[in-house]
Design brief:
By secondary structure, the chain is of the alpha/beta class. It contains 11 helices and 18 strands. The strands form 4 sheets. It has a 7-stranded mixed β-sheet with strand order 6-5-14-15-16-13-17. It has a 5-stranded parallel β-sheet with strand order 8-2-1-12-18, with helices on one face. Helix 7 runs antiparallel to helix 8. The chain is globular, with a radius of gyration of 21 Å.
Length: about 425
């Protein structure tokens, strides 16, 4: 009755921890020979943090991340459009965390190995294909091995080989014309630390937030993402989290972005290495599930990095799969129930992110209305309208304050599959 998981990223490891918690046999098959911390900073919303805390990982999160206090939007001239508290400062029962993605992945991996044993993750095992039938599923690895299991969950990312088999005509991810440059820099904390900032507009913007608390000199490890729009016919190589960039490609665009609380050129120049990544997603699928096989995380619903929702949703996927297994047993019915619950939500989030309905949509609205120059934001967009926009996205993505605080646990404490 083993559940097979393809991929040991945030999605697959969260699912492994969940299955171990509820007593479901599983094994994860990971393409890389050795797991190494990859990527840069991400945010974990309170709905996902709640699940991680329910897995007993609060101390580990505090060790690797920062409890986020504030999110702010600022025009290209550094003027304040909208600021709001986050996490427990906003009234959530659970915090929001800013963390290094690689540190999160390694924390999940180490916790899983400590709980379930080293043999629960098989490395050097790249998923290449699948077979499904009435008795279960078979994961086919690139070296020809065939692994039989009761269920198969594809958590192998935006370039999922298993998704590609299910949808062979889909093609490559869709580029929206924007390129991201991502890095971390030791820099002065602003607004007391724990504050996220989004500056600019759709053609040129910067996102920054600390992934460490201020030291005695007031310095933090600042994660930042510079973003620029290019013509859609511009040539960009396939996305790769490990491709180093030349900052001269974009530093001049930010030369004047020096404000009294952040020096963007200094932030960019202070990074040891900068990675470039085209902003891509995929069209929503009509189905994720084929009998004993389903998709999760970026294999199911890759979206733009807008609203700090990608890793959070991967964790939620894992927990909802676990909850539906408790309800329906280790059966295809559980996978169908998971998809029915999650796919409409992730489709709505992906479409909102594409259409500028994410929380950062206010940046372009201000640019269009006044070019980022104003004395009082109320004369451009009323604050009540800004508050409503922020609340609307939280509701779409499933982390409105009142609803989340009132929601029962996804998995009841102590719940386990009957032996």
């Amino acid at each position: 009755m083993t559940v097979l998981i393809a991929g040991a990223g945030v999605a697959g490891l969260s699912l492994g921890l969940t299955l171990h918690q509820i007593g479901v046999p599983f094994r994860i098959y990971e393409a890389t020979a050795v797991l190494r911390p990859m990527g840069v900073g991400i945010n974990l919303q309170p709905n996902a943090v709640r699940e991680l805390l329910d897995m007993g990982l609060e101390a580990e999160l505090d060790r690797i991340g920062v409890r986020t206090r504030q999110l702010g939007f600022y025009s290209k001239l550094g003027k304040t459009i909208w600021e709001e508290p986050r996490g427990t400062w906003a009234g959530y029962t659970w915090p929001q965390y800013s963390v290094h993605r690689g540190a999160l992945q390694m924390m999940l991996y180490e916790a899983l190995i400590a709980r379930a044993g080293a043999d629960c993750v098989v490395t050097g095992a790249r998923a290449a294909g699948l077979e499904t039938g009435p008795e279960g599923a078979i994961l086919i690895l690139s070296d020809g091995r065939r692994i039989e299991g009761r269920l198969l969950i594809a958590a192998d990312g935006i370039h999922s080989a298993l998704r590609a088999q299910m949808y062979p005509d889909e093609g490559e991810p869709i580029w929206n014309g924007r390129v991201l440059w991502r890095a971390t820099t030791r820099a002065p904390a602003y607004f007391g630390g724990g504050a996220m900032a989004m500056i600019g507009h759709d053609d040129l913007r910067l996102v920054s937030y600390p992934i460490s608390d201020p030291d005695s000199d007031g310095m933090v490890e600042m994660n930042w993402i510079a973003e620029k729009r290019f013509p859609l016919d511009a040539a960009w190589k396939k996305e790769d989290w490990n491709r180093a960039a030349d900052i001269s490609d974009f530093l001049p665009d930010f030369a004047d972005w020096r404000f009294d609380w952040i020096d963007v050129p200094a932030l960019i120049q202070g990074a040891e290495v900068v990675y470039e990544y085209p902003m891509v997603d995929r069209d929503p699928l009509p189905s994720w599930t084929d009998g004993s096989v389903t998709l999760m995380g970026d294999a199911a619903h890759p979206t733009y990095p807008v609203g700090s929702n990608g890793a959070s949703q991967a964790i939620l996927d894992a927990r909802i799969i676990g909850a539906r297994l408790l309800e329906h047993g280790i059966t295809p019915k559980a996978l169908a129930a998971y998809e029915a619950e999650v796919r409409p939500v992730t489709t709505a989030v992906g479409q909102a992110n594409r259409a500028g309905g994410g929380p950062d949509g206010v940046l372009q609205r201000v640019e269009d209305l006044c070019g980022g120059e104003f004395d009082d934001i109320d004369t451009v967009i009323p604050r009540a309208e800004l508050a409503a926009h922020a609340a609307r996205y939280k509701s779409i993505a499933g982390f409105s304050i009142e609803e989340l605080n009132a929601r029962p646990r996804t998995i009841a404490q102590g719940a386990r599959i009957p032996a």
